[in-house]
Design brief:
This protein is mostly helical and 217 residues long. 84% of the residues lie in helices and 0% in strands. Helix 5 (77-102) packs across helix 9.
């Protein structure tokens, strides 16, 4: 559990990067965003960017909750949901396929050995359900996908769990971003989008490690 707490500050820093500009130059950046909203790029281009960014989430520290919220702000909840859902699924499928092909040496490039060990223990106990339970958890979500690939979970068991849980997350964040656009409080929405994954991860740190510890007794 102590090791998990060490990952939380780094995770917070990564997730706070998109919001920090609001804290220092909030007024100027808000006007910039307004100009962007008044003359936005085409919807297909925006959707392609969202999909592309989220597809790399398994490999890079992408703040997916922020990107998903911005997709709803810019595209509306329906198109934002579609772009977010496709991007999240592509990222999960990519990580799973590569972990199946290259195994643990590949996974260790993108997740710590301790996180993978935790996910293995929890996965052994709960099976594919762990993919659903960790979808909204930074670090844990990626580790669960990688450990499923390492242990060569079948595609028939992997895809339904990930695709359906990603759909729920995509709808929630895109609808939230759309609502924020309608009420003109995007900075607050982004702050919430940062806080939610951090809180979820903190709660997970309270309970998931205990399952691992108990399994060793």
């Amino acid at each position: 559990m102590r090791e998990l707490f060490r990952t939380l500050p780094l995770m917070c820093v990564v997730l706070l990067v998109p919001v920090l500009p609001f804290l220092f130059i909030g007024g100027q950046l808000e006007r910039l965003l307004q100009r962007f909203a008044d003359d936005p790029p085409s919807a297909p281009l925006t959707m392609a960017v969202v999909v592309g960014v989220l597809a790399t989430d398994i490999l890079l520290p992408i703040p997916s909750s922020v990107i998903s919220t911005l997709s709803g702000w810019q595209l509306g909840w329906l198109r934002g949901t579609c772009a977010t859902w496709v991007g999240m699924n592509l990222g999960a499928v990519l990580g799973f396929a590569l972990a199946r092909r290259w195994g643990q040496p590949f996974a260790l490039w993108f997740s710590s050995g301790d996180d993978l060990a935790r996910m293995k223990t929890i996965s052994d106990r709960y099976g594919p359900l762990v993919l659903v339970l960790t979808r909204a958890m930074p670090v844990f979500a990626e580790a669960s996908v990688l450990i499923a690939g390492i242990h060569r979970l079948t595609w028939r068991r992997f895809l339904p769990a990930v695709v359906l849980s990603n759909l729920g997350i995509a709808v929630a964040y895109a609808a939230f971003g759309d609502y924020a656009e309608q009420h003109k409080w995007l900075p607050l929405a982004l702050a919430v989008a940062v806080a939610v994954p951090v809180v979820v991860a903190a709660v997970a740190q309270r309970f998931l490690p205990n399952s691992v510890d108990e399994s060793k007794e």
